[in-house]
Amino acid sequence: MSRNSIARNTLALGGVQVANLILPLVTLPYLLRVLGPEQFGVYGFSQAILAYGVVLTEYGFNLSATQRMARAQGNQTEINRIFWSVQAAKALLALCALSLLTLAVCVVPQLWAVWPVMLASTPVILGAVLFPQWLFQGLERMGFVTLCTIAARALSIPLIFWWVKTDQDTWRVALIQTSVTVAAGLLAWGLIWHGRMVSWQRSSLADIGVAMKDGWHIFISTAAISLYTTTNPVVLGFLSNHTAVGLFTAADKIRQASQSLFTPFSNAVYPRVSALMAQDASAGLALVRKVLLIQGGLTLAISCSLWLLAPWAVHFVMGQQYEGAVSVLRVLAAVPFLIGLSNVFGIQTMLPLGLKKHFSRIVMASGLINLALLFVLVPLWQADGAAAAVLLTEGLVTLTMAMVLRSADIHLLHLPQLQKI
User: Fold this and answer.
1) Comparing 69 with 91, which gets the higher pLDDT?
2) Nearest to 270 by CA among 138, 363, 413
3) How far apart are the C-alpha atoms of 167 and 175, rounded to whole Å?
4) What span, in angstroms and rounded, lies between the C-alpha atoms of 301 and 202?
5) pLDDT digits (tens, 9 = 90+) for 317-360
6) Of 28, 128, 242, 248, which one has the greatest count of Cβ atoms within 10 A?
7) For the chain, what is the HEC assignment?
8) Where is average pLDDT lowest: 50-54, 229-233, 236-240?
9) Distance from CA of residue 170 to its chain's centroid?
10) Rounded to whole angstroms, how far apart are CA atoms 322 and 149?
């Protein structure tokens, strides 16, 4: 991948992040005011539950399959084999996810109480199966990701203003937002067939097994990460109330939106880092050091801005009903900086260098620690406690990854004379 391709892919993925950032902001203030903190908490609680199904369905393929696709460029037979084996695996995993979610709704009273919203949220599982971001990213066709995401998200805007009028329309919000992922997936498949990016090839059980095995450690890591991201509103909903979930979710959406500013650069660099590490580890590490410098500086600026602008952001985006979210947002303010560092230490360095087991163990342990923190901090401080658990856990992840790299004699903070990427 050339320097120009990194810039092109960064801009393409930047378009996705702009769509994910700007388009929801068109409707988010409206939804926050119409639904109110309690019903917005119901929406956030249901979305967090469905996120477990998405984690199981995607399985870590967005990293493992991206890496395989990047290495298979120019070999159409291998591209076809990887594509269909991953899609078959995702379809099987989606069936498992839907079965488990259905069982959970039937036996858990807190889930049964919000079953209309849960049911309306299930299309997100189908969208996770259909949308192959890993294919576009691995083949450096990120412009397709931008096109599909923006087109689908734009459809949701008029639907929300037209169909959502009161706090009883929470299920409609869920149905609109999750159906967007299905629309994006269908559009992506249309582009794949039109561009003849892949052709039909039957997948064997062995191929599916290879795809599952290759993504296993990343799946475990992703599932563990969900213990300190997705799980927080879930535990908050069980231990507190939907209003507290609404305050936490609203503040976290602002944090995630600001954090998405560095995601395009990180995603665009990852395929090149993977390829370089396979060819020349020293060249790969030189690139990672530059990424650390750029990404660390950007995320530090984001975190400082979040802390300073928290009162204005809450008042402007959420309204007076969400005054309690100011302290939540300030607790979360340092998280983008910590994630920016841990992304370089873990995703950009440990995984390409084959330290998958170490990566998995770190995030698994941290996920369990976050879960323990939630049960201590949420009863004391509710939404602020959930935010504090996220902050402490992200700090632990970043510190531990840095220590593992140091023990492996990988010194990313030693910056040699920088050369052009």
Assistant:
1) 91
2) 138
3) 15
4) 49
5) 898 899 999 999 999 999 999 999 999 999 889 988 888 888 88
6) 248
7) CCHHHHHHHHHHHHHHHHHHHHHHHHHHHHHHHHHHHHHHHHHHHHHHHHHHHHHHHHCCHHHHHHHHHHHCCCCHHHHHHHHHHHHHHHHHHHHHHHHHHHHHHHHCHHHHCCHHHHHHHCHHHHHHHHCCHHHHHHCCCHHHHHHHHHHHHHHHHHHHHHHCCCCCCHHHHHHHHHHHHHHHHHHHHHHHHHCCCCCCCCCCHHHHHHHHHHHHHHHHHHHHHHCCCCHHHHHHHHHCCHHHHHHHHHHHHHHHHHHCCCHHHHHHHHHHHHHHHHHCHHHHHHHHHHHHHHHHHHHHHHHHHHHHHHHHHHHHHHCHHHCCHHHHHHHHCCHHHHHHHHHHHHHHHHCCCCCHHHHHHHHHHHHHHHHHHHHHHHHHHCHHHHHHHHHHHHHHHHHHHHHHHHHCCCCCCCCCCCCCC
8) 229-233
9) 23
10) 29
Highest average pLDDT, of 2-6, 125-129, 188-192, comes from 125-129
Output the pLDDT for position 220. 82
Amino acid at the residue 336? P
Q: Between residues 221 and 242, which one has the greater pLDDT?
A: 242
* Confidence (pLDDT) at 228: 65
Q: Which two tokens stand for residue 185?
A: 């997936």
User: Rounded to whole angstroms, what are the CA distances from 92 to 52, 81, 297, 334?
Assistant: 15, 17, 41, 38
Lowest mean pLDDT among 53-67, 330-344, 405-419: 405-419
Mention every residue, 6+ apart, whose C-beta is less than 8 A from residue 66: 134, 137, 138, 270, 271, 274
Q: 190 Cβ partners below 8 Å, 6+ apart?
A: none
pLDDT digits (tens, 9 = 90+) for 376-397: 999 999 999 999 999 999 999 9
- Reported residue count of the chain is 421
Residue in the structure block whose two tokens are 């929801």: 24
pLDDT at 19: 63
- How far lies 75's CA from each of 64, 78, 151, 185, 314, in Å? 18, 5, 30, 24, 50
